[in-house]
TrEMBL record:
InterPro entries: Photo_alph_chp2. The chain crosses the membrane at residues 6-25, 32-51, 63-85, 106-130, 185-206, 212-230. Keywords: Membrane, Transmembrane, Transmembrane helix. The keyword Transmembrane helix applies. This is DUF3623 domain-containing protein. The keyword RNA-binding does not apply.
Length: 274
């Protein structure tokens, strides 16, 4: 087996499984949320400890630990937002007829505290890895942060597949901030820049000579960036991509996730709510 196969498969498996677990927990009854967040916070603390402990470990194990720790920290950010614990000063639907900058400001207000928490998470990982040879945790977190921000901007500007089935009932108001369109001007830029980054990371992973630590770390980063780029394409392609996580969705929601949407022609001034 190629030495690149194991880290690549590990990245795919943990990305797919951790995403599904978060979706599953977010769709449980709200009375379970405090328990889920308590467990998630314990995992967060363990992940931060692991990141700090592995910061000086320039081995294959250190690269795996750093990646896993960063992914768990990011998972806490997603759980705290979608469970409604860390959102923003305006957790409500947009004003009917709101458009342009007014709508963008309202959208930002729904998640402002979440965005600040993400920044604090990055600063925490930066502090734990400061002047250390092992920075794959920081780079992993930055990939997740950047690609998540890009996806959210594209959802705001307009994509074909809104994937609103992933939104828990208590966050259904977020649907008014999403726009259904066959294309937006940001999307080609997003996928082009992301593809360039995938290629650059892949070149570093394949470079000779390299250490096992660098090979594993950059292979994981390349795979993660590739998956994030693929997720962007899932927003536009006529594919039921949400069905990848059917096992984590309630039965009725999972059934709708298997449906391929039809294109919606763009009309001047049109903003279809989810």
């Amino acid at each position: 087996m190629s030495p690149y196969a194991v880290p690549a498969l590990y990245a795919v498996a943990i990305w797919w499984f951790s995403t599904g677990v978060i979706i599953l927990l977010d769709h449980l009854p709200r009375r379970t949320f405090p328990w889920s967040m308590a467990g998630g916070t314990a995992v967060l603390l363990a992940a931060l400890y692991a990141i700090g402990a592995s910061a000086g470990d320039a081995t294959e194990r250190g690269a795996y630990t750093a990646f896993t720790g960063a992914l768990l920290v990011w998972g806490w950010q997603e759980m705290s937002y979608y469970m409604g614990f860390v959102t923003g000063p305006r957790p409500e639907a947009c004003r009917p007829g709101a458009r342009g900058f007014e709508k963008f400001r309202a959208a930002l207000a729904t998640s402002l505290w979440h965005e600040l928490a993400i920044v604090l998470g990055a600063l925490a990982i930066l502090a734990l890895t400061w002047n250390a040879p092992q920075k794959f945790a920081l780079w992993t977190y930055c990939v997740l942060w950047g690609m998540n921000l890009s996806a959210r901007l594209n959802l705001f500007l307009g994509v074909r597949n809104l994937n609103t089935e992933f939104l828990p009932d208590h966050l259904s108001y977020l649907g008014c901030y999403l726009t259904k369109r066959p294309m937006n001007l940001l999307f080609p830029v997003s996928v082009s820049v992301a593809t360039v980054v995938v290629v650059l990371l892949g070149q570093v992973a394949l470079a000779e000579p390299t250490t096992p630590h660098a090979m594993v770390g950059f292979t994981i980063l390349t795979t993660l960036m590739g998956l994030a780029t693929l997720e962007h394409w899932f927003l536009m392609l006529p594919l039921p991509a949400a069905a990848l996580w059917n096992w984590s969705l309630p039965p009725k929601v999972a059934a709708s996730a298997a449906t391929v949407t039809t294109p919606v022609p763009a009309e001047p001034g049109r903003r279809d709510a989810a």
